[in-house]
Amino acid sequence: MRKVTAAVMASTLAFSALSQAAGVITGDNGSSAEGITQHSGQSHMFDGISLTEHQRQQMRDLMHRARHDQPPVNVSEMETMHRLVTAENFDESAVRAQAEKMAQEHVARQVEMARVRNQMFHLLSPEQQAALNDKHQQRMDQLREVARMQQSSAMTLFSSNTRSNQ
Hints:
By secondary structure, this protein is mainly α. It has five helices and no strands. It starts with a helix and ends with a helix.
């Protein structure tokens, strides 16, 4: 059940991220031309990278095409999953099949977004690419630290539970 919920949430979040990224690129967030590098606290691939107006326009064009090429959110699939989750009797095979179908759609959206981001990355100068790679490395280091802390916390909880059960 957790996997189903995760698949549905991931699908929703992916669409949300695409919409937010499109808003950031096109400046639809209501801010100035700096919208490409600052977006209401949202983490974005190009945060902190100064882009030329020409690069911003190229990225807007890429996002505009991506938005129009993207199939609409499949609301009927979400409704089907909701019916399966709220059914009188739980049908694991039906839920599994529905989750896999939704996951395939999610993967297709992720691949398309990665393609667009790759095109955007290659619009950057070598210096901008290096800065972006440095920022990525910093984020990965932070995530590794968070994962290390979570693992340490889980180990502490496990050992506490083991001792109290003895």
